[in-house]
Design goal:
The strands form 6 sheets. A 7-stranded mixed beta sheet has the order 18-26-25-19-22-20-21, with helices on both faces. By secondary structure, the chain is α+β, with helices and mostly antiparallel strands. The protein is globular and about 95 Å long. The protein has 5 domains: 78 residues, Phosphorylase Kinase, domain 1 (2-Layer Sandwich), CATH 3.30.200.20; 121 residues, Transferase(Phosphotransferase) domain 1 (Transferase(Phosphotransferase), domain 1); 66 residues; 118 residues, no CATH class; 204 residues, no CATH class. The protein has 25 helices and 26 strands.
Length: 716
Amino acid sequence: MAPEARQPLKRNLRRSVVLEHTPAGARVWKRFHAESPWRRLFDRARAAREAQRAAAARAAGLPVPRVLEVGEDEGHPAVAFEWIVGAAPLAGAALAPIPGLARRLGAALARAHAAGLAHGDLHAGNILIDGRGAPWLVDLRAARVGVARGGAALLRDLAQLGADLREGTSPLFRARCALAWWRALPSALREGLPPRSALLAQLEDEARRARRDYVRARVSVHRRDSSATRRTTAPDAVERRAPLPEGAPLVLTGASAGRAYDAAVRLELHGIPAPRPLRLVLGPEARAELAAGACAPAVLLGRLLDRGLAFRAADGAAVVPDPALAGGWAALLGGCALADDDAGRLLAACAAAGLPRDVGFWTAVCAEQRGTRAQRRALARAAAAPHGADAHGADAHGAAPPGALRPAPAQAAVPLRRRARAALLRGGVQAARGLPPAATAAIARGLAALAAQGPRGALARANLARALGADLDPAAQRAVLAAAARFAGRQLAEWLRLAVPCAPGTAHAARGAWIDAAVELDPSIARLDAVLAEGRGAVVVTAHIGNWELLCARLVRRGHTGAVIGRVRERDPSHSWLTDMRRAYGVETIPQDASPRRALAVLAQGGVVGVLSDLYVKRLDHLTLEFLGQPAPTLTAPAAFARAYGGPLVPIRCVAAEGGRGRYRLVVEEPLELARSAPRGAAQRDLLQRLNDVYSGWIRADPEQWAWHQRRWPSA
């Protein structure tokens, strides 16, 4: 049938959507036209699958447009859907004027979850809002209906949607949507979810992280042929498809051009007013052209804080743009790197820089930051920070030359050894991608042997003599230390392999098959299953023995979900390498100083929380108990978790056979219960001493696999 009118609604390189008006009424054609001839062979199957799954979702009572026809449109395999009058994507809808939309959206999502819908690509662009404000689900080519899903999977859907909405909607809108979803969700599905008080904070954190991950991944799209950009050959360059604005662009050349272009792409996708990316010339004479733009300093600062981003100087310190931004964009984009900032470095730099104290400036910052009360209090402290002269040209009132950057104070500079260590680790990951495992292991052993000759080696010798000196003669101690250095090299090589993305459920999951081969599960794993079967989650405690990261990765490969609690070092970029490594194999890191609610929320979903508790950490609460026959500060956190979540501690070790040379074996010890009938202090000491005894037994059995080079005793 020849159409009377056709209106393109959406188009990318693989699919397009066209509204067709005919005498019989309006319909929407979704056409499939892959780029390569090979992919086009599967277009017809993709169209049929989308029609089939949309029909199944509609039959389950979900708000999905009716399938009218499966055939061809202008020579391409296509599916015709009914036209929803007045429909517009949620991503581009004017949400504020639609009363009750947040509640209807949350209730519709709960209905989809109750029907067992696993959408597969749930984001704001795949939800339509009709003229009455009712939501509709579209783009169901990867959807399945009737799938049993746990609380963590449901929260991922909500967080993914929140990631799309968080930078265009208010926190109140998102909170109303989440609460409406919670209330409409069947009670059987709510059992594995965190309490409502923790739900909103967790969703906001996950949505912000998911949004940053999405934007970071989209940067590569702006360096190739896509719906946003096109590649040219003379010169080799990439430029945006939209018409270029008039006026002289901001031009950056040299090594900083690519970094400035990528940063401008991220800022634009995050909705931060900044110079927009226009063109990037690749090759030895790199050149970035950006559309000149201005942004109020308070708006820029507030949105960076809201998105969890910061500009960092070469030494890793966060920098804040001066309130007078004249000419400051070239310095920001060309001289700094745009990085994630969950640790709050930018806020600390704000306090140190002595920014203006006037109420209007900080009111505007808070309006853009849209954070929690705690975050607003932190902003208030930054606003009230004392002014003073600094080493970067600021006067007594915090003034600085126009366009200058205000770095964090000098003591926040990252030491050279830490920057070198982080660079070495990242280089090692790249080597692990291309070198055979045996070559990577040989290099790692050499580095470990070199490190053993420095201060860490001296600390290892002192710790070993203190703990086992009565049991081992000097020759035996030297043998243990030599074996420990060899094992540290093996451990480092395995960490470099773990840092290559291999998380289950991703496209790279097959890369992690080596983890299954490297770690044998002892039959005692049934003890962990028994604890998890009680529905409270499990607190897994372990020591710095064997390969604790491989332990965590093996549990993830087995199907467990959860997080680990680790230290956040403000001035150590290798920390971000560790968190990236864990994220690569499928685990998130909860900072030690984060609210305990984050860990309790993981437990409430039936997840596993991992805690390393065998070392001395001066800033954390501890008791002095016996460890390897010596008085030693012992962290109280494991006992606090046992009391808070009402379950036992589950000690697990992952140690290698044959003196650290053979295959790993993951062994689960008998769970340690808190004596709740005893006085609180006595019960805490009893539990922690029993845990220390377990650790001591492990270390005596495999002394070459414990981290002797770490600080365990304050006087070491």
